[in-house]
Amino acid sequence: MKFFERIRNIRLVLIVIAIVIAILSLVTSNILITDLQKEETNKMEVWAEAMRSYNQADETVDLNLVLKVINGNNTIPVIVLDSNGNVQAVRNLGKSYDNDADSLQQIKLLAESMKASHKPFIINLEEFNDYIEVCYDDSLMLKRLAAYPYIQLTVVVIFVIIALFALFSTMKAEQNKVWVGLSKETAHQLGTPISSLMAWLEVFKESHTDDELLPEMEKDVKRLQLIAERFSKIGSIPQPAPADIACAIGRVVDYMDRRTSSKVCITTHFPNDDIQANMVEPLFEWVIENLCKNAVDAMNGTGNIDISLGTSDDIIIIDVKDTGKGMPKSNFKSVFKPGFTTKSRGWGLGLSLAKRIIEEYHNGRIFVKESEIGSGTTFRIEMKRLK
Q: Helix, strand, or coil here: 346?
């Protein structure tokens, strides 16, 4: 449990660090872009002043410096309008415009867009009792710099997502190998003592024919065989076969009735018609048995377990409800994670294994339908019904 909590905490810390780095990157980029915008605004102020000097100059004024400033702007888009809104000059618009009406109209619309993003410079022409407006926009380089951090972050996020997906896929594949290897080894290790017990049981049958304990011993040996078969099927790729859901649940209930206290009452609610499904019976029975055992533990050996079977369209619905201590909603998904347990004993693998069996071997799903602290929990299994 602590190991898996540690992994989740490390994952959370890494996500927080990534978010902090992204925020710092964006803040730093915005600061740099703001500084560059101020610099371009200052340049445009100088350019506008040069335009004022050019428009008010007479033949005695040296315009070399003024023209150098005006012609030196090769990056910032500029549109100069007169007091009537007519286009007087354009610069660095990125494409050529003809003097036809359509092009002029496009330039006027572009000038309005520039005014919306940057306050234009007003140049008063006192000699002519008139004025002109210098409209400008961010340079192409500045726009690229403004977009670059977001493009960079997008690429990084996509890369991280792909990397995490590959990592989790690899981890899941390794986990599956561990499950399969452990299951095969468990089935193999159980096989030898079970065979020996079966042989000894036959010997006892011959020498103690009337012994009342022999039937119970035989049931326990068969139980061990069933457990070994379950592990063997998990460690392989079993082929599902049509089977009656109610019969499979009934076998589990009969077994649990014999193995639990009389203070635990297990009731079933089955429809009159047969409900068939493609399933691996030993593994499906293991899931129901696991849910019942968890319910008994949650009720501390006293209470009711209600198992209902029904259908909705082509879906089989199985609800296992207990009157145990319940759980908070925050644990609804966590209970199926390996290592999660609220008990002082146990490995916390039962529900994780149940989820694997239902989803991977039966193409269904299992989840906590509802739970209330002090009132109990209902687990639901959904599987496809055979017609």
A: coil
